[in-house]
Amino acid sequence: MTKYPVHPDVCLKPLPFYDVLAELLKPSSLMPTKPGRFQEDSFTFHLTPQQAHDIAMSRGSKDYGVQVQLRFCLLETSCEQEDNFPPSICVRVNCKMCPLPNPIPTNKPGVEPKRPSRPVNITGLCRLCPTVANHISVSWTSEYGRGYSVAVYLVRRLSSSNLLSRLRSSGIKNPDHTRAMIKEKLQHDPDSEIATTSLRGSLMCPLGKMRMQIPCRVTTCVHVQCFDASLYLQMNEKKPTWICPVCDKPAIFSNLVIDGLFTEILNEAPIDCYEVQFHENGTWTPVLPKKENKVIGSSVIQKPLRHPSTSSTDKKKTNVEVIDLTLESSSDDEELSSPTSQSTHPFPFYLNTGQSPTSSISAGPPGPIVSIPSPASPSSSNSSLPSVINCPLPPVSSSGSTSSVTKHYNSSFHWLLHP
Q1: Cα separation of 203 and 418, whole Å?
Q2: Are the C-beta atoms of 94 and 23 separated by less than 8 Å?
Q3: From 14, 141, 231, 271, which residue has the greatest number of CB atoms within 10 Å?
C-alpha cells in the first residue's frame, strides 16, 4: 500500500460555467486502507448557515442555482488536472447512491470504459443543515503507481449568456493586431519555397454555417479565420469540449477574444457578402457572388417537327370518306357529283346476298336481294314470317359510276319504308 499525502497540492482546472464560491472539502487523496485492489474511503464536510441558506434560496424549477459539486482527478501536482474518475468507482452521499456520468463504451478488449470528464452535482443528496455533517463514501479499484484525489466545492451555475456578457466586457481586440497577422502571412520570404499569394476570410461561422454576429477567435491559434462567440458558447454549454472549430485545437474560455477587424468587416460589408479578400497591406475587399441572368419568359414557340413516315399515313387517312346511305337522295346526289365521290367506296355493303364479300359490283350478276319484313297487324300476335320482297339491282358496268346504284338503293328503301 502506497502512502499519499492527506491533502495534496492538487489544482483542478477551472470550469467556465461555474463560479467557485467556497471550498467545502480540500483536494484529498483516496487512501488505500487495506490490501487488495478494492478499496474504500470516507470523507466529511459541513455547510455554514449562509451557505445552506444560499442553496435553499437558489432552487429553481429544474435545478439549484447554487450547487454542491463533487470532483475527482489524478493525484498530480505538475499542472492543472481535468476531471478523472477512478476505475470501478461507486459513490454514496449520506448513505444514498450518487448517480455518476455513464461510461463511454470502448471496443478495446480488456479496457474498462472511461467516464466523461465532468463534475458531479450532489446538491439533492446533501443535508442543508449547518449542525449536521454530510458524509461521502467512495469505493474504487486501486492501480499501481497511480493515485486519485477528491474535492467538494460550493459553486454557482452560469449560462452561455453570462459568459457572453463577460466576453464582451473584456473588450474587443485591436484591429491592427489582425492586420499584422495578415501582412505576416502574405509577406514574401525569399528563403521559403512556399509563399502565400492569396488570403481570404469567410464571414460564415464554421459551426452554424451562417453569417457571424460576434466574431471571436483564440489567442493561441495562428489562423485569421473567426467563429461566432454566441454559438460557440451555447454548444459548449450543452457538451463542454472547448475545441476550436477551425483548427481543432484547445480553445478555452479564458483565451477567447472578440476580433476587431472582423467586427469592422461585418459592419461595413454588404449583407449579401459572405467572403472577403485580404491584401498585402492589410486591407480587404468584399467578394460578391456572381449574379446569373435568368430568362423568365420567351415569346418564341418552337413547332414540333413531324416525322416523314407519320405525315404520309396522315394523308392516307384524310382521303378516306364515309358515305351514309340513310341520307336523302338529294344530298347524296350532291355529294356523289363531287370529284372526290367518284372513286369506288373501299368497303361496299351487301344485304342478304349469297355472294362473297370479295366479289365486286361491276363483275357480278344482277345485284343483291334485300329482304325486309312487312309490318304485322296489331291484332295478330302469332303471325308467320313476313313476306319477302325481291328487289334485284340492275347490273353496273365497270366503266359506269355508282350514282345509279345508289339511287336504286335509296328508292327501294323509301318505297319499302313508306308503301
Answers
A1: 98
A2: no
A3: 231
Q: Which residue has the cell 449568456?
A: 161
Is the pTM of the predicted complex or chain greater than 0.85?
Answer: no
For residues 21 and 65, give the distance between their C-alpha atoms in angstroms, rounded to a whole number. 12
Query: Which residues of 312-403 form beta strands (DSSP E)?
Result: none
Q: What grid cell was written down for 385?
A: 314470317
Dump pLDDT digits (tens) for 45-72.
999 999 999 999 999 878 899 999 999 9
pLDDT in tens, 341-350: 444 444 444 4
Residues 8 and 77 sit within 8 Å (Cβ to Cβ): yes
Q: What is the DSSP string of 162-227?
A: HHHHHHHHT-EE-HHHHHHHHHHHHS--TT-S-----EEEE-B-TTTSSB-SSEEEETT------E
Please, which contacts does 237-245 make with residues 24 or more away whose CB atoms are closer than 8 Å? 237/17, 237/159, 237/160, 240/15, 240/16, 240/17, 240/118, 242/16, 244/217, 244/218, 245/206, 245/207
Report the C-alpha gap between 158 and 14 in whole angstroms: 13
